[in-house]
Design a protein that fits this description.
Largest interface: A-B, 19 and 15 residues
Strand order of the largest sheet of chain A: 6-2-3-5-4-7-10-8-9
CATH architecture of the largest domain in chain A: 3-Layer(aba) Sandwich
Helix content of chain A: 40-55%
Shape of chain A: globular
Structural class of chain B: alpha/beta
Largest sheet of chain B: 8 strands, mixed
Number of strands of chain A: 14
Distance between the termini of chain B: 15 Å
Radius of gyration of chain A: 30 Å
Oligomer: heterodimer
CATH architecture of the largest domain in chain B: 3-Layer(aba) Sandwich
Shape of chain B: globular
Distance between the termini of chain A: 77 Å
Number of domains of chain A: 2
CATH class of the largest domain in chain B: Alpha Beta
Structural class of chain A: alpha/beta
Strand content of chain B: 5-15%
Order of helices and strands of chain B: HEHEEHEEEEHEEEEHHHEHEHHHHH
Radius of gyration of chain B: 23 Å
Number of helices of chain A: 20
Chain lengths: 623, 411
Amino acid sequence: MDGPTFRLQVFLRNLSFFRPKGNPNLARINRRRALFSLIARRITILKLALFIAGYVWMLSIPSTRLDRGVYFDENALQPGQVNTYWNWKEVHDADHFLEELETLRDSNATSEQRSQYIMREFLKIGLSASTQNYEFTGLHNDINGTNTYAILSSPRVSGAEATVISASWISRMDEGNGTLNLRGVATVLALSRYVKQYSLWARDIIFIISDGYMEGMQAWLSEYHGVTQSNIRAQRLDLSSGVIWTALNIDYPGHSLSHLGIFHEGLNGRLPNQDLLNSFQHISRRTGVSVVLYDHKDEPELRWLPESIRTHPEIKTYAAQARNLWRHVGYQASGRGSGVHGLFHQYRIDAFTMFAVPSAGPHGFHSLGRVIESTMRTTNNLLERLHASFFFYVLTSFDRFVKIGNYLPSAILISVAMMFGGLQVWVDAAWTQRLQEKPQTEGPARWIRRRRPVLEVVFTMLGTHLFGAATFSFMSSRRYQSLSSAPFFLCLAVYLLPLVLPTLLRSHSNNSDPPSRALVLKAFNLCLSSTVISIITVLNFSLAACLAVALGIPLSIASPSSNQAIRIANYSFYVVLGFGWVLLEETTKQMIWNWDVLGVWLLPFLCIVYFPLTLQAALVCII
Amino acid sequence: MRLLSLSFSLFTFILLLSLSQSHASSQHTNNWAVLVCSSRYWFNYRHMANALGMYRTVKRLGIPDSNIILMLADDAACNERNRFAGSVYANPGRHLDLYGENIEVDYRGYEVTVENFLRLLTGRLPPSFPRSKRLLTDSSSNIFIYLTGHGGNEFLKFQDNEEVSAHDIADAFHQMYEGGRYNEIFFMVDTCQANSMYSKFYSPGILATGSSVVGENSYSHENDYDIGVAVIDSYTHYVLEYMEKVNKTSRLSMADLFTSYDVPKIGSHPGVRSDLFDRPLGPEHPMNEYGLGRGWTVEGGGEWVGREMEAEKRGRGLREALITDFFGGVVEVDVDGEGESVLQLFEDLECPPVFKEPTPPPIKMYSPPPPTPVSSTSLFDEYPFLRPSLAFVILGALFAFVFSGVISGRS
């Protein structure tokens, strides 16, 4: 007999020895059932493990184990490979512009006068320039102003594409609290005169001095892209150019700078392509200006930690990166972004703000101009929109980042844990222990199936979301603004809700028993929350992480109680968790402003999705 | 009388022997060059500069524009980002404008495709194509083919959307061989993993060299910070720098070129393939050193396919391959820019004055060293029909002499 064939046959015979006897299909079904029961039996441990893994993962995002150094992906960029010729003459120009801007400021010039001055200067340089008046109607009808812009047509090609260099009149200092960005404006003016000399620009350059902090640029951009925002009444733009690919926003509020800060978060959690930021930080450091993320130029102080731990390099790095991450989560989750650049992202324009961190020195117009010139040359090298590098990333430092695969699972794990929990509750809701008629009978408890009231629970959930929508429409109305006690009325309404809702439910369905209803509601609530978190992770990771923290464990432990006091305490907890933010007047005001002026969807999301989810958990506790 | 006839026949025999021996070695009557820059876009400026640098060199050494096919996939000179419009430089400091005033780009922009390149080589071009876009070679043409661009293992990227594979080029060369379109080819390629590009050749008469071994990148040499991009690739830079030492009469062999490869400077390990090539690459001394010494980390010497055949080739007594066999011209040329030495361009003006002198006027001499002191073989190179006709005449005279002697002896 042939050797290998014989051996194969023996092997197969041995293999069949391990195979179960009987019908293979049946065996498969049994195997699957065994697997399911294995998972089902250990579902609590599994859930717990997923929760712990998720939260631990979230905490370890700032560690150096998960991030890596940044790198350039786009070959065309060629950052930092040019000589820059911005020099003291240009610095003198900038100083001159600054002087005149300061005169304007001191004479309390109106937006109109300012923009006229800036436009005249642009025209003197030889650029085509124009102004744009805008005003907001509706809720915030006190906002108006005048933007000024100029276009340098690309000297040697048709201007099918454009780059924007912008400065807003108000700096992002203290989140646009009113510090003027005079030096930023002066830099843009001097820059426009400077770059006019060169004929190597491969695309149009648009210089924009936007009025106000965010609102002016919002008006300009929506008009440029022909997007009608119903509450803006803006003048048509006289001059037009091509598709804008990149935008640099310059913010220089102090009188000198020590570092250049990167601010990159955009509206609704959008981020610019990482190549742009990488090129900038590379160029800036080559030019000799230190770069920081945000304005974190000092190391975080950890006074409360003992000396030996505080000075440990790993701990120090973790603390610094955690602070950056915390700031990032704040900007991204709020949906507001971290500055004027954020408005560009909604039109698929990669933009960031170069923030001149105020300090006594050593840098000024000279260094800043060089960095901007070199960055402009780099963006000028682009052949197509930035597409190669990452759009999903978390910067932990200006030169380190966490890839999507290293941060996304943290929220997803929690979401999966919630989904398992929801499915478990859904299964539990179908069974009830039969009341034992003969207590003396020994043996395992008897389980019977029961009806799950799906439809009425779905209607309850729909009701909570409708209630959320009503809250939202009230909050975004003029009445809410005028009524200072409105938040309290809202909270009162939420508190009164359970008095109405359960009675409604009860009156409709006397036959279904409350425990099953609470379980089904909890199951649906968990599954819906899990789905919401999973979806939000790719839209706005920071928001998803916040949701995972806020909803993950609280929603999973919601359960009805027989004790009236505990029930009320539970209910209050969930209401505060889901609706407490309404009482923070400043935050609410800011959110309403963001929604109304910039179209940030955090407010509607909180009202229509987040708050109803917690309300459902609250209802689980009392029905 | 008998003695005289004997001595004459002996003399003629020696003459014929010498002629036939030189006939067995490389015989080419014209030189061609195909220079291809296959990549486009501004940041690939250096590839344009590579090809233009090579163009300048072959033109300087005597191949006329009519025999150079220059393919440039993009127009870096007129790119809107070029601060020095209309110029291409291959060195920081911009001493020499390679684009200059006298340049003929035969295939430009989107004409540079794999199809056009292969059609050019094989001669399968539509009748509408002008002579300037055709490789009008014959079985006595020596062709220098230079490719540069972005490549990988056995492929070279053309434009941004297609590749030519090593097999494609090998098959095209074989078609050329079958069709009698070349005498010898010198194939040079500067790209990442360049040596893989010549690995598939199977037609005789091809000498090949590349800038880097498989799995290795080829690097750019230097940036010009005013142009804002890298201006030349390292391998090409050092080849061009070496070529500046060569003039039309120089006797430097291919071995001299190959042994000039300096791995630490180039940054990659160039390779040579000579197994398909009949002639030795040069005298024994330098070529045996190839791939050894400083920087060559490769075990047993740098990549040289055909190393073991070299001694045998040398034993056959064939004429060794000279650089001017491929870079020089054997036809009437008007030479451009002769007086300007380009070494200054590469050596930061610190070149020895000897290179500043104008190179001697082009001598129409292409003489392999004769084994016997027979003069004026250059005349044969000039007039290729002379050799067979002379041989015929002499042979006829000999026969006539011998037979007349026989007849006279009988009578």
